[in-house]
Design brief:
Elements: H1 12-15, H2 25-36, E1 41-45, E2 51-56, E3 62-69, H3 75-91, E4 96-97, E5 110-115, E6 118-125, H4 141-157, H5 177-184, H6 191-209, E7 217-220, E8 229-234, E9 237-243, E10 250-253, H7 255-264, H8 277-286, H9 291-318, H10 324-340, H11 345-355, H12 360-366, E11 379-382, E12 390-393, H13 412-422, E13 427-430, E14 451-452, E15 455-459, E16 463-467, E17 472-477, E18 487-488, E19 493-499, E20 509-510, H14 515-519, E21 522-523, H15 525-529, E22 534-536, E23 542-544, H16 549-554, H17 557-571, E24 586-590, E25 593-596, E26 601-604, H18 617-629, H19 639-651, E27 658-662, H20 665-680, E28 685-688, H21 697-701, E29 720-723, H22 741-754, E30 761-765, H23 780-790, E31 794-798, E32 823-826, E33 837-841, H24 843-848, H25 863-879, H26 881-900, E34 906-912, E35 915-920, H27 931-943, E36 946-947, E37 950-951, E38 957-960, H28 968-984
Parallel strand pairs: 4-9, 12-13, 12-22, 26-36, 28-29, 28-30, 30-31, 31-32
Antiparallel strand pairs: 1-2, 2-3, 3-6, 5-6, 7-10, 8-9, 11-16, 13-15, 14-20, 15-19, 16-18, 17-19, 19-21, 22-23, 24-25, 25-26, 27-33, 32-33, 34-35, 35-38, 37-38
Helix pairs in contact: 4-7, 4-8, 5-6, 5-9, 6-9, 7-9, 9-10, 9-11, 11-12, 18-25, 19-25, 22-23, 26-28
Length: about 1000
């Protein structure tokens, strides 16, 4: 369909074999010298059917790309290529476009030269630096989106281009894909693969026929692939900003431009069909796709993969094995085809539609899938089901039934269902479309199949299900074996689906990213059976709740998360940032894992707020019990505040015996500073550069981290005196010279005292956490504490991050330095996420705070927060968290250090216990920070199921501070995913 009878240019089907030119490099260099007066050295570049060389001056500077075009192409065709390049360059001047370079006379360097292979068209194209996306490295969503944008810009610029050189029949023109596959498939040496390709191509071609007449045609680049986009470097990342190789310019279906672009990304590391969505969205936002084009898009991707496979194998044979470029592409081309066909086209049509804000079911119906035939469906049950005795079970992420890790129990669903039947239910069922947490998996690099396309039902009595036409009824036992007669034994699980009669087999559970497409291929058996009923939680309590199936069909978890971020941005102060540009919606946690609303489980390697882990049942029960009995301000007389204060004071070394309770680390450090000011009657404080202490006035005043506040150094009040960051890795003094930091800081304190501004306090993190988990140089705190005390000031230890056993061997960070401070500020771990912080000092110092009046914190030290603090301390004692920090931390650090030996981007692995930092540098000599790479690595880790964030003033350090319950298995998963990212790219 759409084949032209007569063409004026090249016709693949008439030309037969199309061997690439194979001129010797010295002959090509002579041609360049003869025609353009240039002395160049040539390095061969790959091409499927042309011959390309990179030309350099004798000094090695790039001059251009010499392109020898296959003799089968006419002068008109080459002129059309030049015109197309010029059109795009004029339409989008910010893009770099490869055109023929020009000599001193202004004429393009383009000539038909006499060669050893006869007359050949030789051109010198402009050299565009930056390289392409060639190779298997992972493509980030941002890069994929940019490729879609470039395809859209090319499409818009070429929409009205007319030229006789466009009248050609190329094997890459997908209007002819059926004939190309038919002609070249016999050359494929593997019969099994050959059959796969021909079968898939035939199905895809059939899918196109209903819309082919409605597809608009225009001039297209036709080869805007990863090999043919050039990139600019953005400090370690690569962003496509230009196009090369216009050799396949022709007139064809406009949507083929996008199909070819997105298919080229499928062979890259970590790519799968849904990886193309950013490109499709970007294309659609500039050049909207019609309904027909949307329906045609994935069949065209499949056809592109099929054409690549058969063409690549054929070209290898045509060139007798001499074409290394074609030979090297065979595996890559098969990967594109295999991934394109890994999901049925109808499913991808639904997914694409949903991604563009369209209705997936309508898109599938428009694509010839009569999903309406299954709505409504006359599904009957014998005996008939009493809807008032139907109980809907809930194992979604928000259900009480899955609390405290219950979702990891493989028998949970059966137990809930049988309990409901025991209470008199006629049927208990799990609904369609809502992600099931019970299907989630930990330590999974890919999202698991959590979305059901049908229902699971347990009937009180043996029940026969029947369907009167329309859809296809599928009834399976729990092991997936089909129950052919539709008879479900009493009290056993049955998986029930309604599918389109002539459609593909629908899995019972599908991945959330593909759910809109799969769900559009069937209907809800619960609705067909008239099931309603109530929802059962873990305790068996029932509450009326309508099914949310239709909402789940209409939106994916990703769109739901994006909508929530938009709402947050409207109601929440913008300065209160969130992790990631496109964060998942997290509504549950368990131990060292967080769970998204789609059931995706993420390993949380950054959350030092929760040492006990997420969802700790003991903490939840204790706080809940206290909230049911009493929670009031801290000035009432109750036992919990006394017991917690006593136990906390006992954990501090002598003479620290008195406790203030507050709500957060910021408040703790603020209060610690105020206590020192009051105790000494002074106003000056010495802090350390690159440190963060909090957001209140005083704690912010002593914070000097430019990562948290770019104006930190310029906006310090005059009473704050920062000393140099004692960073032995990238500071001014490194290695053994790091011992110089302490005497220099001590001398600064003495200078302040001598200038009649003796400091009230010196405040520092006891382990250099904000800079990336770096230990202070040995003896640093001892010398600096001695200097500040000699001047009559106090030593404040910020233990907000390092305290509470995170270092493993020591409960407090200052113990690693062999010192005792005058004031300790602690928070984060103290309440395991419940608002709680503390200042611990001596009775004498605390008493001097009376000069400021009185102090209290309404909820700092409230009954509930005090109980939370006590429960955390109990868990530390009973669950061996400090020991785990030491043992698992040492194991993890060893694994990370071994990783550093294989990946030069890792400059160092810092830290102790579970307070680690992986610092990325571009150069081990200069220590240039790999800031952009670190951010991209964190994004890629998220896609692989790991929560990680950067830290440090250069934002080039992974802050590895997981909950202290983290296991070796989780440590191994983190290291494996980091290894994968560093190997595959980001």
């Amino acid at each position: 369909m759409g084949h032209r009878a007569i063409v004026s240019g090249f016709d693949f089907f008439s030309a037969g074999e199309l061997p690439a030119p194979a001129l010797p490099a010295d002959e090509v260099a002579s041609l360049v010298r003869e025609h353009w007066g240039l002395d160049v050295a040539l390095a061969p570049l790959g091409s499927q059917q042309d011959q390309n060389f990179l030309a350099r001056t004798p000094d090695g500077d790039p001059v251009g790309v010499v392109k020898i075009t296959t003799p089968a192409f006419t002068a008109d065709e080459i002129a059309a290529q030049e015109l197309a390049a010029s059109r795009i360059a004029e339409a989008w001047p910010e893009l770099r476009i490869a055109r023929s370079s020009r000599g001193g006379d202004g004429a393009p360097r383009s000539v038909v030269a006499t060669t050893s292979e006869g007359p050949l068209h030789v051109r010198m194209l402009e050299f565009l630096p930056g390289g392409t996306l060639h190779g298997p490295a992972h493509l980030s969503p941002a890069v994929v989106a940019r490729m879609g944008e470039l395809a859209a810009r090319a499409s818009l610029a070429l929409a009205d281009l007319e030229h006789p050189g466009l009248d050609r029949v190329l094997q890459w023109d997908l209007r002819h894909a059926d004939r190309v596959v038919e002609r070249l498939a016999p050359f494929h040496p593997d019969p099994a693969k050959r059959e796969q390709v021909t079968d898939a191509a035939a199905r895809a071609w059939d899918d196109l026929q209903a819309v082919a007449a409605d597809l608009p045609q225009q001039a297209v680049h036709l080869d805007l692939t990863d090999d043919n986009v050039v990139c600019r470097g953005e400090r370690g990342t690569r962003v496509p900003d230009g196009m090369i190789d216009f050799g396949d310019v022709t007139r064809t279906w406009a949507v083929a431009e996008l199909a070819i672009t997105i298919s080229s990304g499928l062979h890259h590391a970590g790519a799968e069909p849904v990886s193309v969505l950013p490109a499709v969205r970007a294309f659609h936002s500039l050049r909207p796709l019609s309904t027909a084009e949307l329906r045609a898009l994935w069949p065209l991707v499949v056809l592109r993969g099929a054409v690549l496979v058969v063409s690549g194998e054929h070209q290898v044979q045509v060139d007798g094995g001499a074409n290394d470029y074609a030979a090297s592409g065979v595996e890559r081309e098969w990967e594109i085809f295999a991934r394109a066909t890994s999901v049925p086209s109808a499913v991808m049509t639904g997914v694409l539609a949903e991604a563009l804000g369209m209705d997936a079911a309508e898109a599938v119906e428009a694509a010839g899938v009569d999903a309406r035939a299954t709505r409504p469906t006359p599904l009957t049950a014998d005996p008939a089901i009493d809807p008032d005795r139907a109980v809907r079970l809930d194992v979604s992420i928000t259900s009480d039934a899955v609390d405290a890790g219950a979702w990891l129990d493989p028998d949970l669903e059966d137990r809930l269902a049988l309990a409901a039947l025991d209470r008199g239910a006629a049927v208990a069922w799990l609904e369609r479309a809502t992600p099931r947490l019970t299907s989630s998996r930990v330590h999974a690099a890919d999202s698991p199949a959590t979305v059901p396309t049908g229902i699971d039902a347990w009937f009180a009595t043996t029940t026969h299900l029947a369907l009167a036409g329309g859809a296809r009824l599928v009834v399976e036992a729990a092991d997936g074996v089909t129950i052919l007669d539709g008879t479900v034994p009493a009290r056993t699980r049955a998986r029930i689906r309604l599918e389109r009669p002539d459609g593909p087999h629908v899995p019972h559970l599908v991945r959330p990213e593909l759910a809109p497409g799969w769900l559009a291929l069937g209907d809800d058996p619960a609705r067909a059976l008239g099931l309603g009923g109530s929802e059962v939680d873990g305790g068996g309590a029932a509450a009326a709740a309508p099914s949310n199936t239709e909402r789940a069909v209409a939106t994916t978890a990703a769109r739901d998360a994006a909508d929530l971020v938009a709402r947050r941005d409207r109601a929440y102060a913008e300065v209160q940032e969130h992790y990631y540009d496109a964060p998942p919606r997290i509504e549950r946690g368990w131990r060292e894992h967080l769970v998204g609303t789609d059931g995706r489980v993420y390993l949380d390697m950054v959350n030092n707020v929760t040492p006990l882990g997420h969802g700790h049942p003991g903490l939840a029960d204790a706080v809940s019990r206290q909230l049911r009995t009493l929670n009031t301000n801290s000035r009432f007389n109750y036992g919990a505040v006394v017991e917690f204060s006593e136990r906390l004071a006992c954990l501090a070394p002598d003479p620290l015996d008195t406790v203030f309770l507050v709500n957060s680390g910021s408040e703790a450090t603020d209060l610690a500073i105020r206590v020192a000011l009051a105790a000494t009657g002074r106003r000056d404080v010495v802090s350390v550069l690159e440190a963060y202490h909090g957001w209140t006035y005083a704690s912010d005043a002593v914070s000097t981290s430019t990562a948290d506040n770019p104006n930190a150094l310029a906006s310090r009040p005059d009473w704050v005196h920062p000393v140099e960051a004692p960073n032995p890795f990238r500071g001014r003094h490194r290695g053994e010279d790091a011992a110089r930091y302490a005497p220099e800081a001590a001398e600064r304190i003495r200078e302040l005292a001598a200038s009649d501004r003796p400091p009230a306090a010196f405040i520092a993190e006891t382990f250099y956490g904000n800079a990336g988990g770096i230990p202070l140089p040995d003896g640093y705190l001892a010398e600096v504490y001695a200097a500040v005390r000699e001047a009559g000031g106090l030593a404040i230890a910020d233990e907000v991050q390092a305290g509470y056993g995170r270092l493993g061997r020591w409960f407090w960070g200052f113990e690693q330095q062999g010192v005792v401070p005058d004031v300790i500020a602690v928070a984060k771990a103290a309440g395991n996420g419940y608002p709680l912080g503390a200042v611990i000092t001596t009775r004498e110092i605390a008493a001097r705070f009376r000069s400021q009046g009185y102090f209290f914190s309404s909820t700092g030290g409230s009954p509930a927060s005090s109980v939370a603090g006590l429960t955390v301390l109990d868990a530390f004692r009973d669950e061996g968290l400090q020991r785990n920090a030491a043992e698992t931390g040492a194991y993890l650090k060893g694994r990370l250090e071994a990783l550093a030996a294989h990946h030069p981007l890792i400059g160092a692995v810092h830290g102790l216990g579970l307070y680690l930092g992986v610092e990325f540098v571009r150069d081990h000599a200069t220590l240039e920070p790999a800031t952009e790479e670190t951010a991209a690595i964190c994004d890629r880790l998220l896609a692989l199921g790991v929560i990680m964030q950067p830290t440090g003033d250069h934002q080039n350090v992974l802050k590895v501070k997981p909950p202290l319950v983290v296991t070796r298995e989780s440590a191994d998963f983190f290291v494996a995913m980091l290894d994968r990212v560093l190997a595959e790219g980001w």
